[in-house]
Hints:
By secondary structure, the chain is of the alpha/beta class.
Amino acid sequence: MTTKRVKEILSWYASDNPGTLANLARLLNHGRLAGTGRLVILPVDQGFEHGPARSFAKNSAGYDPRYHFELAIESGCNAYAAPLGFLEAGAAEFAGDIPLILKLNNSDSLVAGGDPCPAVTGSVQDALRLGCSAIGFTLYPGSDARNTMYEQLRELTEEAKACGLAVVVWSYPRGSSLSKEGETAVDVVAYAAHIAAQLGAHVIKIKPPTEHVEQAEARKVYESEGIPIKTLADRVRHIVQGTFNGRRIVIFSGGAAKGKEAVLEEIRQIAEGGGFGSIVGRNSFQRQKTEGVELLHEIMEIFRETT
């Protein structure tokens, strides 16, 4: 039975066909947070992005793609997201056990560059073949190649929605026009989330923003309008407001590997600010499985307590 909260969220996407809404409902109705309107997703694209040793040597079980299916299922995540190869390695064995998100573009770290543009490494047809509920795509607002990514996403989104799939967008500001500090500045992250919403994303994944304001013109507005950005909860609330006044699902990345208490405190602030959930990769799969499952359960409990 779909809960009142999930029905409310689905009503925000009234232009979508029943197949897309059904797959979005599958994400919202699966796992320990089913029906709450909150999401905790396990993403494992780090092997492609950073290399196998950097990603999996801390917990060598992670070299096996099936391990991540098991971690997501045992911990009760809403979904599991990965590139084509990792999903192909386990989609048949774990068919129907957890909603899947196929990451359709990826970068590697072998070539340095100030303006990234990931390669398209999967297709909507791949997602359908593997039984996925959604496609995933990374945008880098701030990159000189951003228009190419916007156009790629627009085409893939149109095809995915026509086929009844949901769309999850990783919107990570990055590029030669931004300072390193600016990549997580509150004004820039809010802008990146809004861009993803304008491009038709159902679920938007962003990094937790800092108090820094990067753009001089934006700083004038933040100061003149007294926009609260002192705490992470304030900044999350501001970004959720900027994504159609909270009518789009916005979740936050777990970020770099860090201690358990630091992870949980960040989650508390995200939940207090009205964030819809988290997508936690390295901080879960680089721990031993029992510890990773326990951490994910604690994260889910924080979101459950704030529904």
